[in-house]
Amino acid sequence: MSEAFDQKPLEFLRLDPEEMRARASEVYNRLQSRRTVRHFSSDPLPMDVVEECIRAASTAPSGANKQPWHFCVVTDSAIKSAIREAAEKEEYLNYHGRMSEEWLDELRQFGTDHVKPHLEVAPALIVVFRQSWSLDATREGKSKNYYVQESVGLACGMLLAALHECGIATLTHTPSPMDFLGQILNRPPNEKAFLLIPIGYPTEGCQVPDIQRKRVEEVVTYYGSDFKKI
Ligand code: IYR
After folding, report:
1. Mean pLDDT over all residues of the chain?
2. Which domains does the chain have, with CATH numbers?
3. Which residue of 67, 146, 194, 227 shows the fewest CB atoms closer than 10 Å?
4. What is the C-alpha to C-alpha distance for residues 113 and 44, in angstroms, rounded to an integer?
5. pLDDT in tens, 6-38
6. What are the tens digits of pLDDT across the range 133-188?
7. What is the pLDDT at residue 225?
8. pTM exceeds cut of 0.90
């Protein structure tokens, strides 16, 4: 039986509403400028910055604080090439039979296909693994993890935001099935690949699709009438 954790005071800074408003606009403006990038320069990144962003991502909330994630950072060109080759094999099958006509039609607007040069060109790939169970020393063996998808999704969102804040562009890539990533990176059996994120600087003159984000009115519904200004 587990004992309850000791408690300690929360560190929390309560802001006045004007300061909250200023910060809300600033965080929106910074995050809205993030775009998925598909054309990377091969310039190397300061990898200590990448590690600090992973440290930030790893503060994400997780079911029973299990932190069921692992981040593999690949800069080795031979491993990047092996990942590209395996990903293109899966993507070829996806684009030539496994994806529905409706799906292919949607993707035509983005101009994607099975050819993934960025997997070799980008200076680093972050492969995020989710851990279905943990090897827990105190329980002498496997211990269950909870809400693994949700937890790892939250950590990935925080990772993308942290990298963006630090001037690093990202591509969220899911070359499913992704089992080849566990094999190439020799990961243990409790880990499954969750997301493959090429990172780097965009090429000079990099273009992105001119897409629109939903208006806030489309994505939020309020239940309550107390919208008087504080
Ligand atoms: N995984 C493929 C296909 C793809 C699927 C979706 I949904 C996208 O938003 C983009 C691509 C690929 O990476 O090409």
Report:
1. 95
2. 37-203 (3.40.109.10)
3. 227
4. 26
5. 999 999 999 999 999 999 999 999 999 999 999
6. 998 766 678 899 999 999 999 999 999 999 999 999 999 999 999 999 999 999 99
7. 81
8. yes
* Helical axes 148-165 vs 47-57, angle rounded to 10°: 140
Phi, psi dihedral angles at 48 (to 5 degrees): -65, -30
Q: What is the mean pLDDT of residues 201-214?
A: 97
Residue 23: predicted pLDDT: 98
Q: Which residue(s) pair with 135 in the sheet?
A: 142
Alpha carbon distance 175, 117 (integer Å): 13
Nearest CA to ligand 1 atom 8: 107
Helix 148-165, helix 17-32: angle, nearest 10 = 90
Tokens of 161: 């935001």
Does the beta carbon of 174 lie inside 6 Å of ligand 1? yes
* Mutation test residue for ligand 1: of 89, 93, 96, 107, the one with most atoms within 8 Å of CB: 107
Residue 48 one-letter amino acid = D
Tokens of 201: 């600087």
